[in-house]
Amino acid sequence: MFDRPLNLKDSSETAMHDESRQGEALIIERPKQYTGRKLYIESYGCAMNFADSEIVASLMLDMGFETTAQYKEADVIFINTCSIRDNAEQRVRNRLREFSAAKKKRPGMTIGVLGCMAERLKSKFLEEEKLVDIVIGPDSYRDLPNLLSQADEGIRAVNVLLSREETYADISPVRLNSNGISAFVSIMRGCDNMCSFCVVPFTRGRERSRDPESIVREAKELFEEGYREVTLLGQNVDSYKWEDRLNFAGLLQLVAQIDPLLRVRFSTSHPKDITDEVLHTMNKYDNICNHIHLPVQSGNSRVLELMNRTYTREWYIERIDTIRRLIPDCSISTDVIIGFCTETEEEHQDTLSMMDYVKYDFAYMYTYSERPGTLAAKRFEDDIPEDVKTRRFNEILKMQQACSLNRLEQHIGKTHRVLIDGFSKKSDKDLAGKTEHNITVVFPANGNNKPGDYVNVEIVRCTPATLIGQIIN
Ligand code: SAM
Ligand code: SF4
Ligand code: F3S
User: Fold this and answer.
1) Is 308 left (phi over 0), alpha (psi -120 to 50) or beta?
2) Radical SAM core domain spans which residues (predicted)?
């Protein structure tokens, strides 16, 4: 969601200057059918969905749209949706109700549903939500001009074709709601794993990797514009592969070599695929951040098998031990699903004991939500009662909260290199930034430093989620 007007680069403007540089007598401007019309775009779900919204914004600006932070004054409202859990979809439906009310007052308005929920529900969306005009899946954004002109003619339009090739490699994303310091760079799309609980393979289609040249070019341009951190995004970055000649470790190295001042992060790693080569590459480059997000989902091998995660508890522990051995100062975070089909009390205890073993710096914890069409929905009964799921969730949450605090306390007395990314939310006398472990640090501004600078900060204390420190020379 955007809470302030967006500062957007007009890409057709750049194209125009390029043409004039070539000495053409005649400057040909692309027709901008929608000049002066306003777009409001709101995004839900994972970082990849937010990155997609930046591609959509780029395509829309090319058509002449400008963006607004006020949906009530928009000509087009786009909601980029997530289907991962039922509550994610409910949130979107509630929001659509508010947009529909706005459309009744402004009948010329077009409402478009984008992303995973559009892909999952397809034309059913138009039947269920009467005021939606456009339904567009994640691989069809290039078809926006066509769909918008159909909507202008009063035709409700759908394009949910999935592609085996589309990576939007040539489109320069318009950075939305950016702090100007950190940006996401998509390196692949889709997912070929079939985790039984997961809707993503159905909403995002087959896995495909993006041309490395376009990835490096985008990261370089970001650096030249003043960005100091890129996060390489994919559902399973370790299976990145370009024409059998470049794997993820190779790509990581290419991006790390752009400039030592550009921090590189990546997400998400799959425990079955993360290689020692990636860990060695992380060690080789100081600017690759020592942080790995390694979703465990469950600490029990039988449950992992039902989830079709294709690794066991022992395999996962071996990967953790190897990370700790090769990169002792690596922070590790995870995702956990609580109350998956048939999970027993002992199996839940196995997840708790796994968390106790790994001592995650951070965890995203979810109760299992059955998703229509997934393997688990077809094969297993969602048989853990809600009150049991909630109780198990609270046990896991309590353990993780204690662990996160304990991990933060271990930083007290240490000095960390912090990339400043803005001011503290509580006071503009304090700056805020991140350590390479992805921990937020707040410290008094000294008048000499600004967002984008690196400073050494001595950690003096912590709150449950933040380190507090002071700059040292
Ligand atoms: N690709 C990543 C991986 O393999 O770990 C994660 C992708 S998913 C967008 C993010 C997280 O949502 C998953 O790791 C999982 O913990 C959670 N998740 C996915 N499906 C779920 C479901 N049906 N119910 C509850 N949580 C779910
Ligand atoms: Fe979903 Fe599994 Fe793919 Fe992650 S790896 S997106 S959890 S199917
Ligand atoms: Fe949600 Fe789709 Fe991402 S289901 S988590 S927005 S890939």
Assistant:
1) left
2) 177-406
